[in-house]
Amino acid sequence: MDPDEPPSCSSLTTQQLQQSWRALKRRERPVRLLFEIPSSRIIERNTLNKHVVYEVVVMRSGSFDSKRVSVERRYSDFSHLHQKLLEEFHEELEEVILPRKLLTGNFNPDIISERRLALQDYLAKLYAVRCVRHSLLFATFFTEQEQRRAHSLLRAGQFEPAMELLQTVLQIQEKLLPWQRPTLIVPSLSALAVCYRDLEEPEQAFSVAQRALPAVRRYGLKDYRAAVLQLLLDVGYQLGRPVATFQEELTVLRDAERGEVSSRSLKEIVVQEFI
Protein backbone atom coordinates (compact mmCIF):
# COMPACT_ATOMS: atom_id res chain seq x y z
CA MET A 1 0.00 0.00 0.00
CA ASP A 2 1.29 3.46 -0.92
CA PRO A 3 2.21 5.22 2.37
CA ASP A 4 0.99 8.55 0.93
CA GLU A 5 -2.41 7.14 0.01
CA PRO A 6 -5.21 7.69 2.55
CA PRO A 7 -6.44 4.47 4.15
CA SER A 8 -9.59 2.91 2.78
CA CYS A 9 -12.66 2.50 4.97
CA SER A 10 -11.96 -1.22 5.26
CA SER A 11 -8.53 -0.58 6.76
CA LEU A 12 -9.77 1.89 9.38
CA THR A 13 -10.43 0.81 12.93
CA THR A 14 -13.79 1.48 14.54
CA GLN A 15 -12.29 4.33 16.53
CA GLN A 16 -10.79 5.89 13.41
CA LEU A 17 -14.10 5.59 11.59
CA GLN A 18 -15.88 7.31 14.46
CA GLN A 19 -13.32 10.12 14.51
CA SER A 20 -13.60 10.51 10.73
CA TRP A 21 -17.39 10.63 10.96
CA ARG A 22 -17.33 13.26 13.72
CA ALA A 23 -14.91 15.40 11.69
CA LEU A 24 -17.18 15.13 8.65
CA LYS A 25 -20.22 16.12 10.69
CA ARG A 26 -18.38 19.17 12.03
CA ARG A 27 -17.54 20.25 8.49
CA GLU A 28 -21.13 19.80 7.34
CA ARG A 29 -22.72 21.52 10.32
CA PRO A 30 -24.89 24.37 9.00
CA VAL A 31 -23.86 27.89 9.87
CA ARG A 32 -26.29 29.76 12.08
CA LEU A 33 -26.31 33.13 13.75
CA LEU A 34 -26.25 33.21 17.52
CA PHE A 35 -26.98 36.20 19.72
CA GLU A 36 -25.85 36.82 23.25
CA ILE A 37 -26.58 39.76 25.51
CA PRO A 38 -24.01 39.18 28.25
CA SER A 39 -24.11 42.58 29.91
CA SER A 40 -25.83 45.90 30.26
CA ARG A 41 -25.03 49.29 31.69
CA ILE A 42 -26.89 52.38 32.78
CA ILE A 43 -26.03 55.63 31.04
CA GLU A 44 -26.93 58.72 33.04
CA ARG A 45 -26.21 62.12 31.55
CA ASN A 46 -28.43 63.91 34.05
CA THR A 47 -31.38 63.11 36.30
CA LEU A 48 -33.79 63.44 33.37
CA ASN A 49 -31.68 61.56 30.83
CA LYS A 50 -31.02 58.05 32.02
CA HIS A 51 -31.33 54.78 30.14
CA VAL A 52 -30.05 51.20 29.92
CA VAL A 53 -27.98 49.91 27.02
CA TYR A 54 -27.47 46.22 26.31
CA GLU A 55 -24.36 44.68 24.80
CA VAL A 56 -25.44 42.55 21.82
CA VAL A 57 -22.87 40.00 20.66
CA VAL A 58 -23.28 38.47 17.19
CA MET A 59 -21.65 35.09 16.57
CA ARG A 60 -21.73 32.41 13.90
CA SER A 61 -22.02 28.74 14.75
CA GLY A 62 -20.90 25.78 12.66
CA SER A 63 -17.24 26.71 12.97
CA PHE A 64 -15.10 28.41 15.57
CA ASP A 65 -15.88 32.13 15.52
CA SER A 66 -12.84 33.89 16.91
CA LYS A 67 -14.11 37.40 16.21
CA ARG A 68 -16.13 38.55 19.19
CA VAL A 69 -17.93 41.64 17.99
CA SER A 70 -20.69 43.52 19.73
CA VAL A 71 -22.78 46.66 19.64
CA GLU A 72 -24.91 48.40 22.24
CA ARG A 73 -28.64 48.88 21.86
CA ARG A 74 -31.41 50.40 23.97
CA TYR A 75 -34.80 48.85 24.52
CA SER A 76 -36.23 51.56 22.25
CA ASP A 77 -34.02 50.27 19.42
CA PHE A 78 -35.51 46.80 19.80
CA SER A 79 -38.99 48.32 19.87
CA HIS A 80 -38.33 50.32 16.70
CA LEU A 81 -37.04 47.19 14.95
CA HIS A 82 -40.12 45.24 16.00
CA GLN A 83 -42.51 47.87 14.67
CA LYS A 84 -40.69 48.04 11.33
CA LEU A 85 -40.67 44.26 10.99
CA LEU A 86 -44.38 44.07 11.81
CA GLU A 87 -45.09 46.44 8.93
CA GLU A 88 -43.55 43.93 6.52
CA PHE A 89 -44.04 40.55 8.19
CA HIS A 90 -47.09 40.89 10.41
CA GLU A 91 -48.42 37.37 9.85
CA GLU A 92 -45.02 35.71 10.15
CA LEU A 93 -44.38 37.43 13.49
CA GLU A 94 -47.65 36.60 15.19
CA GLU A 95 -45.89 34.36 17.70
CA VAL A 96 -42.78 36.53 18.19
CA ILE A 97 -43.43 38.85 21.09
CA LEU A 98 -41.20 41.76 22.04
CA PRO A 99 -40.63 41.90 25.82
CA ARG A 100 -43.10 44.44 27.14
CA LYS A 101 -42.20 48.00 27.96
CA LEU A 102 -41.96 48.79 31.66
CA LEU A 103 -43.24 51.99 33.20
CA THR A 104 -41.44 51.52 36.52
CA GLY A 105 -38.45 49.61 37.82
CA ASN A 106 -36.44 49.98 34.64
CA PHE A 107 -33.20 50.42 36.57
CA ASN A 108 -33.71 47.61 39.06
CA PRO A 109 -30.79 45.15 38.61
CA ASP A 110 -33.06 42.10 38.70
CA ILE A 111 -35.41 43.57 36.12
CA ILE A 112 -32.50 44.59 33.88
CA SER A 113 -31.10 41.05 34.08
CA GLU A 114 -34.50 39.55 33.28
CA ARG A 115 -34.99 41.87 30.32
CA ARG A 116 -31.47 41.17 29.06
CA LEU A 117 -32.27 37.46 28.79
CA ALA A 118 -35.69 38.16 27.30
CA LEU A 119 -34.19 40.35 24.57
CA GLN A 120 -31.60 37.70 23.82
CA ASP A 121 -34.39 35.16 23.39
CA TYR A 122 -36.31 37.65 21.25
CA LEU A 123 -33.41 37.98 18.79
CA ALA A 124 -33.14 34.20 18.53
CA LYS A 125 -36.85 33.95 17.74
CA LEU A 126 -36.59 36.67 15.11
CA TYR A 127 -33.69 34.88 13.47
CA ALA A 128 -35.72 31.66 13.37
CA VAL A 129 -38.20 33.36 11.00
CA ARG A 130 -36.74 32.92 7.53
CA CYS A 131 -38.09 36.12 5.98
CA VAL A 132 -36.78 38.14 8.92
CA ARG A 133 -33.22 36.82 8.85
CA HIS A 134 -33.10 37.60 5.12
CA SER A 135 -34.51 41.07 5.69
CA LEU A 136 -32.31 44.13 5.38
CA LEU A 137 -34.16 45.60 8.36
CA PHE A 138 -32.81 42.82 10.55
CA ALA A 139 -29.25 43.32 9.29
CA THR A 140 -29.23 47.09 9.69
CA PHE A 141 -30.43 46.81 13.30
CA PHE A 142 -26.92 45.62 14.19
CA THR A 143 -24.97 48.15 12.13
CA GLU A 144 -26.80 51.33 11.15
CA GLN A 145 -26.05 53.36 14.29
CA GLU A 146 -22.34 52.60 14.02
CA GLN A 147 -22.35 53.33 10.30
CA ARG A 148 -23.93 56.73 10.87
CA ARG A 149 -21.39 57.61 13.56
CA ALA A 150 -18.53 56.37 11.38
CA HIS A 151 -19.61 58.43 8.39
CA SER A 152 -20.08 61.49 10.57
CA LEU A 153 -16.51 61.06 11.82
CA LEU A 154 -15.28 60.51 8.27
CA ARG A 155 -16.94 63.73 7.10
CA ALA A 156 -15.17 65.51 9.96
CA GLY A 157 -11.82 64.11 8.84
CA GLN A 158 -11.49 61.85 11.90
CA PHE A 159 -10.47 58.80 9.93
CA GLU A 160 -8.98 56.60 12.63
CA PRO A 161 -12.04 56.53 14.95
CA ALA A 162 -14.22 56.18 11.85
CA MET A 163 -12.21 53.12 10.83
CA GLU A 164 -12.66 51.49 14.23
CA LEU A 165 -16.43 51.72 13.89
CA LEU A 166 -16.36 50.62 10.26
CA GLN A 167 -14.33 47.53 11.17
CA THR A 168 -16.96 46.59 13.74
CA VAL A 169 -19.71 47.13 11.17
CA LEU A 170 -17.88 45.08 8.55
CA GLN A 171 -17.26 42.17 10.93
CA ILE A 172 -20.96 42.00 11.79
CA GLN A 173 -21.98 42.31 8.16
CA GLU A 174 -19.66 39.47 7.20
CA LYS A 175 -21.38 37.27 9.79
CA LEU A 176 -24.74 38.23 8.28
CA LEU A 177 -23.73 37.68 4.65
CA PRO A 178 -25.08 34.11 4.26
CA TRP A 179 -28.57 35.62 4.59
CA GLN A 180 -28.01 38.96 2.86
CA ARG A 181 -26.99 40.22 -0.57
CA PRO A 182 -23.23 40.78 -0.97
CA THR A 183 -23.95 44.47 -1.60
CA LEU A 184 -24.46 44.80 2.16
CA ILE A 185 -20.72 45.28 2.68
CA VAL A 186 -20.05 47.64 -0.25
CA PRO A 187 -20.62 50.93 1.65
CA SER A 188 -18.44 49.77 4.55
CA LEU A 189 -15.61 48.60 2.30
CA SER A 190 -15.82 51.81 0.28
CA ALA A 191 -15.67 53.98 3.40
CA LEU A 192 -12.70 51.99 4.70
CA ALA A 193 -10.91 52.40 1.37
CA VAL A 194 -11.42 56.17 1.57
CA CYS A 195 -10.11 56.25 5.16
CA TYR A 196 -7.03 54.21 4.30
CA ARG A 197 -6.28 56.40 1.32
CA ASP A 198 -6.60 59.63 3.29
CA LEU A 199 -4.39 58.15 6.01
CA GLU A 200 -1.81 57.43 3.29
CA GLU A 201 -2.05 53.67 3.61
CA PRO A 202 -2.35 52.79 -0.10
CA GLU A 203 -1.81 49.04 0.27
CA GLN A 204 -4.81 48.70 2.56
CA ALA A 205 -6.88 51.08 0.43
CA PHE A 206 -6.14 49.00 -2.67
CA SER A 207 -6.90 45.71 -0.92
CA VAL A 208 -10.21 46.88 0.54
CA ALA A 209 -11.37 48.43 -2.74
CA GLN A 210 -10.61 45.16 -4.52
CA ARG A 211 -12.86 43.33 -2.04
CA ALA A 212 -15.75 45.65 -2.92
CA LEU A 213 -15.42 45.25 -6.68
CA PRO A 214 -17.01 41.78 -7.24
CA ALA A 215 -20.32 42.71 -5.58
CA VAL A 216 -20.32 46.11 -7.28
CA ARG A 217 -19.88 44.41 -10.66
CA ARG A 218 -22.37 41.62 -10.08
CA TYR A 219 -25.21 43.80 -8.86
CA GLY A 220 -24.73 46.67 -11.27
CA LEU A 221 -23.85 49.44 -8.82
CA LYS A 222 -22.69 51.73 -11.61
CA ASP A 223 -21.69 54.79 -9.59
CA TYR A 224 -19.83 52.70 -7.03
CA ARG A 225 -18.22 50.64 -9.78
CA ALA A 226 -16.78 53.64 -11.60
CA ALA A 227 -15.59 55.23 -8.35
CA VAL A 228 -14.01 52.02 -7.02
CA LEU A 229 -12.27 51.43 -10.35
CA GLN A 230 -10.95 54.99 -10.35
CA LEU A 231 -9.58 54.58 -6.83
CA LEU A 232 -7.94 51.29 -7.82
CA LEU A 233 -6.39 53.03 -10.81
CA ASP A 234 -5.06 55.97 -8.80
CA VAL A 235 -3.75 53.89 -5.91
CA GLY A 236 -2.53 51.15 -8.24
CA TYR A 237 -0.38 53.63 -10.15
CA GLN A 238 1.00 54.87 -6.84
CA LEU A 239 1.91 51.32 -5.81
CA GLY A 240 3.26 50.34 -9.20
CA ARG A 241 0.58 47.68 -9.67
CA PRO A 242 -0.68 46.52 -13.08
CA VAL A 243 -3.86 48.52 -13.65
CA ALA A 244 -4.51 48.12 -17.38
CA THR A 245 -7.52 45.87 -16.79
CA PHE A 246 -9.06 48.40 -14.41
CA GLN A 247 -8.49 51.18 -16.95
CA GLU A 248 -10.08 49.14 -19.72
CA GLU A 249 -13.07 48.21 -17.57
CA LEU A 250 -13.62 51.83 -16.55
CA THR A 251 -13.40 53.04 -20.15
CA VAL A 252 -15.87 50.40 -21.35
CA LEU A 253 -18.25 51.23 -18.49
CA ARG A 254 -18.25 54.95 -19.19
CA ASP A 255 -18.59 54.45 -22.95
CA ALA A 256 -21.48 52.01 -22.53
CA GLU A 257 -23.27 54.10 -19.91
CA ARG A 258 -22.48 57.53 -21.30
CA GLY A 259 -24.22 60.14 -19.21
CA GLU A 260 -25.58 57.57 -16.75
CA VAL A 261 -22.43 56.92 -14.73
CA SER A 262 -21.49 59.53 -12.17
CA SER A 263 -18.03 61.04 -12.31
CA ARG A 264 -17.96 61.46 -8.52
CA SER A 265 -15.00 60.08 -6.64
CA LEU A 266 -15.46 57.30 -4.11
CA LYS A 267 -14.95 59.81 -1.31
CA GLU A 268 -17.67 62.07 -2.73
CA ILE A 269 -20.05 59.11 -2.78
CA VAL A 270 -19.12 57.92 0.71
CA VAL A 271 -19.57 61.28 2.43
CA GLN A 272 -23.14 61.43 1.14
CA GLU A 273 -24.06 58.11 2.74
CA PHE A 274 -25.79 57.81 6.13
CA ILE A 275 -26.48 61.51 6.56
UniProtKB/TrEMBL annotation:
GO terms for molecular function: phosphatidylinositol phosphate binding. Residues 32-149 form the PX domain. Pfam families: PX. It is found in: Early endosome membrane. Keywords: Endosome, Lipid-binding, Membrane, Protein transport, Transport. The keyword Membrane applies. The keyword Phosphoprotein does not apply. SMART domains: PX. This is Sorting nexin 20. It comes from Labrus bergylta.
